[in-house]
Amino acid sequence: MVAYNNDYGIHKYLQKEYLAFGMDGDIGYIFHLPNNSIYRVDLGDLDIASIKYIAPSFDDFLGKAIYLNFDKPQNIVDNSSTI
């Protein structure tokens, strides 16, 4: 996990309060450590403004992953104002 975050420069390009935990192709999934919420980010565009809110917790993220397809725009909430 540490190597993954270092290889993609998660802390360099986003902030130290984010931790990447997985990927699906060129999409990375990241924890926002202060509140444990989950976001997704295009690993080719690690701009803090480009991350998209997915879920308030890892448990909720797993529930959504089972029932939803995150590739559909309607299943992603733009909650960038809470970052």
Characterization of the model:
The structure is a single chain. It contains three helices and four strands. It has 83 residues and is of the alpha+beta class. A four-stranded antiparallel beta sheet has the order 1-2-3-4. The two termini are 23 Å apart. It has helices at 2-8, 10-13, 58-67; strands at residues 18-24, 27-32, 37-42, 52-55. The longest helix is centred in the C-terminal third of the chain and has 10 residues, at 58-67.
What's the topology here?
Blueprint: H1 2-8, H2 10-13, E1 18-24, E2 27-32, E3 37-42, E4 52-55, H3 58-67
Antiparallel strand pairs: 1-2, 2-3, 3-4
Instruction: Describe the strand arrangement of the main beta sheet, using strand numbers.
Output: 1-2-3-4
Query: H/E series, N to C?
Result: HHEEEEH
Shape: globular
Count of DSSP strands = 4
Give the N-terminus to C-terminus distance in angstroms: 23 Å
Q: What structural class do the secondary elements suggest? A: alpha+beta
Characteristics of this structure?
alpha+beta, globular
Brief account:
The chain has 3 helices and 4 strands, in the order ααββββα. With 83 residues, the chain is an alpha+beta fold.
